[in-house]
Design a protein that fits this description.
Helices cover 76% and strands 4% of the residues. Helix 14 runs antiparallel to helix 15. By secondary structure, it is mainly alpha-helical.
């Protein structure tokens, strides 16, 4: 305080020492604190705007890549707008007993991306609500007959037993796959009906209105989902299997090309090859998507080429066989990135046979992709398999001469004056990646035949039509 007045907050103490004397000064601070705060706030706002713009760009790219996601958002908004009329309009609001908000909640929780997923949740929610409401009303009636003192005991025992039983049922694989959501809704609804019934009069009317609002919300979801740009889970599963077959074919071709390419050529095409070689990881990670799509597809009615009781389980077997081949490609990719390089003489000895087998194997997978895409049976697939098997025998015969090549290299290395231990070790290490690639190609050919068998079973069960022409040209010709 100075003369009864407070010092301004912009003053600061400074100590000045000169010629052995200490001088204490009270000086006014400049506006640096204000500008520092301004710059900090400015940087914070700019950083926020940059992040907001980046988020907007990513969201826009997602919508451009798959416009159906944007359409799905509009469908959800439309369904909510329609069901909210029961809340805004007095006549409709009174018709459902003031429980219109349950219809809005139903739309929020059951409207999914695909029709199968929406039907799965709608049927589960309606079934769980109906079953739990009926049991809750029955238990409540029995409890009332037993008297006021026994009523809460019976209600508590019923909640414990039925909630425990419904929870245990969710661990059963069949129930979990098809009725997991329904079991959850059953527990919730039964608890609401049985517990609230102890304090609420006209329990039957409350349960009736609850079921009615759920039915209204579910109906609006189903109608909107089917009529406005329908997205079928079965079609998504079919397209996913077809895409995985195409990725498998491209990745196999690129892996073998990279392995036998020169260093200069490999460096030039490294970017494109990495993209192709990494694509097989999508195949390895597709198991969860395939299982969920197959589960939702079972709930969908017949549509397009997919008839009633379409063999969706067979798609899972085809997908498992495709992933089995993708694991071989993952090992092939490891051989490509290995630091151990096989001698050029050995690579040239097996190059033609490996490339030929890779080409024939790729042709078989491409033809399988065409079968899946067009849903037609091919009479030329067995010819392609025969060519692939011939290439397998040729590669196996070529592998029998590899030990002779190793002996020649050992003798050449000894003539150069190399030590005995190194002479016998290095050629054997250098041949390991090449031998691994050759054995993997043979193994992959056997696994591709498994895919062919699974696809043929799918074609028989789904009743794929016969191709109109047996002279359909293949997309890529094998390398001679």
């Amino acid at each position: 305080m100075t003369n009864g007045k407070e010092l301004p907050s912009t003053l600061e103490w400074r100590v000045h020492a000169a010629d052995g004397a200490v001088e204490i000064l009270l000086v006014q601070e400049s506006g640096t604190s204000f500008w520092r705060l301004f710059r900090w706030m400015h940087g914070l706002v700019v950083a926020f705007l940059i992040k907001l713009w980046t988020f907007f760009i990513k969201a826009w790219n997602i919508g451009v890549t798959d416009p159906r996601k944007f359409i799905h958002c509009l469908k959800v908004g439309t369904a909510l707008s329609l069901v909210s009329l029961f809340y805004y309009m007095t006549t409709l609001y009174e018709g459902v007993g003031g429980n219109a908000m349950w219809a809005v909640m139903t739309v929020v929780v059951v409207f999914e991306y695909s029709i199968g997923a929406t039907l799965y949740k709608c049927v589960n929610r309606a079934t769980g609500t109906l079953l739990a409401g009926s049991l809750g009303f029955g238990v409540h009636w029995i409890a009332i007959q037993c008297g006021q003192n026994i009523q809460p005991i019976i209600l508590e025992i019923s909640v414990f037993l039925l909630a425990a039983a419904a929870t245990f049922s969710r661990f059963i694989p069949t129930v979990k796959a098809r009725f997991d959501y329904g079991a959850l809704v059953f527990i919730l609804t039964f608890c609401l009906v049985s517990i609230s019934g102890y304090r609420v009069d006209q329990l039957f009317r409350m349960a009736h209105h609850r079921l009615l609002t759920v039915a209204l919300g579910a109906s609006i979801c189903i109608i909107t989902s089917m009529l406005v740009c329908p997205i079928w889970a079965g079609q998504e599963l079919h397209s996913l299997i077809n895409r995985n077959l195409e990725i498998l074919s491209e990745s196999l071709d690129e892996c073998i090309t990279d392995f036998f390419a020169n260093k200069d050529v490999r460096n030039v095409s490294n970017g494109y090859s990495n993209n192709i070689n990494q694509a097989y990881k999508c195949v390895l990670n597709s198991k969860g998507s395939e299982e969920s799509m197959a589960n939702f597809a079972r709930w969908e009615p017949a549509h397009g080429d997919f008839k009633f009781r379409h063999p969706w389980k067979q798609y899972l077997k085809v997908g498992a066989a495709i992933r089995s081949c993708a694991y071989c490609i993952e090992t092939l990719n490891g051989c490509i990135n290995s630091d151990i390089r096989a001698p050029e003489t050995l690579k040239n000895h097996l190059k033609d046979m490996c490339v030929r087998l890779s080409s024939y194997s790729s042709n078989v997978t491409k033809e399988l992709a065409i079968i899946m895409k067009t849903m037609t049976k091919s009479s030329s697939i067995h010819i392609s398999i025969g060519q692939m098997n011939i290439a397998v025998h040729e590669l196996q015969d070529a592998l029998k001469n590899v030990p002779n090549q190793v002996v020649v290299q050992i003798l050449q290395a000894s003539n150069d004056g190399m030590k005995g231990e190194t002479t016998n070790t290095r050629p054997l290490l250098e041949i390991l990646p090449l031998a691994t690639v050759a054995s993997l190609l043979v193994e992959m050919a056997a696994r591709i035949e498994v895919i062919v068998e699974e696809v043929e079973q799918l074609a028989d069960q789904a009743e794929f039509r016969l191709a109109c022409s047996n002279s359909k040209s293949k997309e890529s010709q094998p390398i001679a």
